[in-house]
Amino acid sequence: MQKTGAITETARGDILDRNGKSLTGSYAADFAIISPNWLSVSEKQLLLEKNILTSLDDNKINTIKITMENQEILNELNDKTPGVFIYNKSVRYGPKALATHTVGFQGQTGIEKAFDSLLESDVKRYIITDGLSQPIAGFAFNDKKSWPWGIKLTLDKDIQKIIENVMDKRIETGAVVVMEANSGEILAMASRPNYKQFELKEYLNQENAPLVNRAIESYTPGSIFKIVILSAALEENLTDLDEVFYCSGFEKVGGNIFRCSSFEDGGHEEITLKDAMAFSCNSVFIQLGLRLGKDNILKYARLYGLGEKTFVGLPEEKEGNIPEKKEIFYQDLGNISIGQGAIGISPIQAAQMILILVNDGVFKNPILIKEIIDQDRKEQPIGLSKQKTGRILSEETCRKVKETLEAATNYGTGKRANPQNKNQIGGKTGTAEVENNNSHAWFVGYYPVKTPELVISVLVERGGSGSIKAAPVFKEIVEKITAIDNN
Ligand SMILES: [Zn+2]
Questions:
Q1: 245-254, 258-267, 393-402, 414-423: which has the minimum mean pLDDT?
Q2: Residue 12 Cα, ligand 1 centroid: separation in angstroms?
Q3: What is the whole-number distance in angstroms between the Cα of residue 426 and the centre of ligand 1?
Q4: Spacing, Cα 209 to ligand 1 middle (Å)
Q5: What is the pTM of this model?
Q6: Ligand 1 center to 249 CA (angstroms)
Q7: How far is the CA of 335 from the centre of ligand 1 (A)?
Q8: Where in the chain is the domain with CATH 3.40.710.10?
Q9: How far apart are CA 387 and CA 81, in angstroms?
Q10: 234 C-alpha vs ligand 1 centroid, how far in Å?
Q11: Does domain 157-243+273-485 have CATH number 2.60.40.10?
């Protein structure tokens, strides 16, 4: 045999779920190396007919993927001539990829961008060739006894698959975030519309922006912001759940009139604070917002971590919007108290609000990166970002807020979120008015009521009513996740 050489390709680190399963959908596929100088004219003719060669004079060594169309001829020639050599290699992005927005695309978006330099490696994979550049079958290996560094996320592939299937049926545009209630670890997170990493170019200029990760974009929250107003008013001892308010169907603030959903029916009339939350009464929350004043509203919004990134590790994350004090005038308080106007929250921030409540008022950051896998395939902890800690609300306030969220799902606007129609959850709907008579549909909540395990936020962009469009998504996701747990 003549002196050997090699064809090399560089290995790239993998992005894994919490159990070490790859999320990129990578798969092994057969490729053929075509060396025209080794082909007879009749063999060239055959390849020309299949558009594998461009002309009889095409002498470039070329690597092509084996497809349904070319497999027969290439397999046949593989056995006959050194001019065609078939080998197996790993393809990074496949059709079974999950969490495509979180994983992102090599060097450009998501974890693939944030950890680009870590995932890059100088670990080369060699396919050994003889002196005539013909690969020798079976001789492929990594150059050192080492591996490229990888990233292990907190996502759970099974749960990720569940939410993506539910979203494919129910959400054209929007996002879902599922967290473990105790730790704040994100078990699943997805955005729609989806895209395929291996056909990236086709999605670049689409009007519905499938490459945007909507789980970390900012949206008008509507009534899910009432959680902030209620927490602030309770914590500041300005009210209690049994205080009776009056809703006449609308509220006037300065020159602005804000309607309650009960406007057509003449208002909720006398209503307790607890029921005002359960039925999402705008009038009561505007009255509360005025009682609180802008300083308190902004203070508690910021305590909840709104208006700043959660620093989950995704470069595209938006901070949302909590306005500055000087930007808010008296008549704006009506809007802000019901989560309209200048307020902007991302689905991951919305989940974070519930995360803090189910942790009895102790601030928690969502966590997405679990650990790094080093070159010896050992797991290394990762110290990410500025994690905030500390108590932001009393246990008493959290207990009361949760009581209203449980009322909302037992008999109020969140009824459609109940898994198996058992009252085992707490949560809040939001129907956030945006331009052109459109509304974003929200639902944020937790399951089960006693010792919560899951925190979930659902956003259906321009989906209409939170109660009708977002709450049932929550219900179906909880039903499906608990079904795998029970198996
Ligand atoms: Zn009302």
A1: 414-423
A2: 57
A3: 21
A4: 37
A5: 0.90
A6: 5
A7: 15
A8: 157-243+273-485
A9: 61
A10: 19
A11: no
Q: Where along the chain do the CATH 3.90.1310.10 domains lie? A: 5-50+57-153
Flag whether pLDDT at 207 surpasses 60: yes
CA of 337 to the centre of ligand 1 (A): 13
Q: Give the class (CATH, top level) of 5-50+57-153.
A: alpha beta
Q: Output the pLDDT for position 19.
A: 96
**pLDDT tens, 250-286?**
999 998 999 999 999 999 999 999 999 999 999 999 9
Per-residue pLDDT reduced to its tens digit, 317-359: 999 999 999 999 999 999 999 999 999 999 999 999 999 999 9
pLDDT band, very low/low/confident/very high, at 169 (cuts 50, 70, 90): very high
